[in-house]
Amino acid sequence: MPALAVSFVFVTLALLLAVVRRVVDRKGIKHVRGPPSPSFLCGHEEAYVRQEEACDLEFKWMREYGYTWRTGGAFGTDVLTTVDPKAMQHIMQKSGYNYTKKTTSFHMSWLMSGPGIVSVLGKDHQRHRKIMNPAFSAAHLRTFLPLFQRVAGKLSEKWKADLMATGELNTMLNTWLSRATLDVIGEAAFDFDYNALDGGERSAISKGYKDIFKDVDYQLGKPSILFRASWDYLPVPLLKVIKYIPAHPWTRIRDLNNLYREYGRQILHEQVPVVDAEKKATSKDIMSILIKANSSENPKMRMDDEEIIAEMYTLTIAGHETTSTTLTFLLYELAKNQEYQDRMRQEIRSVRAQITARGGNQFTIEDLDSLTLTMNAIKETLRMHPIVVGLHRVAEKDDAIPLAYPVTSTTGEVLSEIPVRAGQVVFLSYAGYQRLPEVWGDDTNVWNPDRFSRLETGKQTNVGVFANLMAFSAGVRACIGWRFSLIEMQAFLAELLDNFQFDLPAEKVEIQRALAGIVMFPMVKGKESLGGAMPMRISLAQ
Ligand code: HEM
Ligand SMILES: *[C@@H]1O[C@H](CO)[C@@H](O)[C@H](O)[C@H]1NC(C)=O
Ligand SMILES: *[C@@H]1O[C@H](CO)[C@@H](O)[C@H](O)[C@H]1NC(C)=O
After folding, report:
1. Which residues are recorded as binding heme (predicted)?
2. Which residues pair with residue 392 across a beta bridge?
3. Best mutation site among 131, 270, 294 for ligand 3 pocket (most ligand atoms within 8 Å of CB)
4. What are 501-510's pLDDT values in tens digits?
5. How far is the CA of 254 from the centre of ligand 3 (A)?
């Protein structure tokens, strides 16, 4: 009942405010072409979240309307949707904080994590970012390589032990990888053992995070869509009551947050005395940085307990499932492309032979970087299967968004830029941009890592932080962990492909790219009760 009452009040208020705003501001982006909105209240939002295959809708629309078009948002609003690289560069990289997050998205992060880096805006965000940046410098990240290798080795040992008994392992690949990356982030960030690989089903934290995005965001119905869309019209302090709604998914979010807070306190409890005792004045690991920030004299470098725990929660959620799902899709593609899998394994083994010949026993960063086929497979997987398929931004000021690919307006005019008013919502489809034939070639819908050896990058609009991809986003809020993730993936792939052969399951299953909000994950078609799932047949590599 309270849930219904809160929803009703929120949606009614939002509807009123949206209508008022429409009457006051008639200009908008009506001259931009786009698919007709199927419903005044929900716009295209319901169709979008109910897509069977993630992003099929924008793949279709970009063929029909060009690379920038208009879709329907909730409450009769218009959303400017784009896959245009120049528009992305302008909004994410050149405008600083002038394009901000939608309340709906940063408040959802706040409900999950509290005041961490993903849920704070403007000056606060700048402060969080400044404090965290040193922990993610290229030099510092190198020191994590032995950890990545140790956890990858541990996963290997577990599979080998199972294979001794069975000869062939039919298992949920994503679950294993998710546990491994959870252990990695726990140790890298907090020197804490989440015990996910060893504990398996018994690891409370691994169980707590499992399928969190699916549980909260998958296949929302109209009432949920409208309730969440209403947040964009309401004052943020009022939204804090959502935390206490005694109904799904708010209870699920609260339970995970409570569980995490116990861990957070335990980690702080164990770490603070150590950091104090050792006076790690120069230490750059994430935990000591956060603890030091708590006692900083400089208000620009301060962070309180609430923020520290939120940061830990955020790193745990942002730093494990993203990487493990990307690896999952990569190994899935390798299972479908045996020829590439063989070549990749050969390259890994030949570099390994060189390492042995020089008396070494582990890959260095330079060795990993010399694995071109591995790096190309990572790039190609980030391109075709971006875990965050796109992001919304809201214009804070009136502006004009430039386009690399002009579009034709409803009156036949050619638009090489789109004027927008403050408050205009934009959706940047990263998945769509990463399928542009003009940028990636004609076979853009095929997983083909070799494209990265022949791409001419000089001619393209530069976007993103890596390989001209948007998968890690860009600009002031780009992924802080992108290098961390790359080295982690390189280390895991070198270990796993050297030792194992990956094949699709004998019994044919259809893998679906499912969407939870803007997060993509693999699912077995028709088996959504399994949650995120990627069944795989693993054996020892010849
Ligand atoms: C393949 C792996 C990964 C992908 C595809 C990915 C993608 C992204 C994207 C798209 C964003 C922007 C989100 C937004 O603006 O709302 C982001 C932000 C972020 N990522 Fe990643 N990420 C990955 C791995 C990691 C790792 C390993 C870490 C930590 C060790 C991490 C930590 C973060 C943090 C803290 C933010 C928030 C940055 C901010 O708002 O300033 N990510 N990531
Ligand atoms: C943000 O907008 C203001 C006002 O329009 C402008 O002066 C400023 O240069 C913009 N900032 C960036 C980084 O573009
Ligand atoms: C942060 O500072 C407060 C007040 O100075 C103190 O009570 C708290 O224990 C500190 N927390 C950490 C994690 O250092």
Report:
1. 479
2. 427
3. 294
4. 999 999 999 9
5. 24
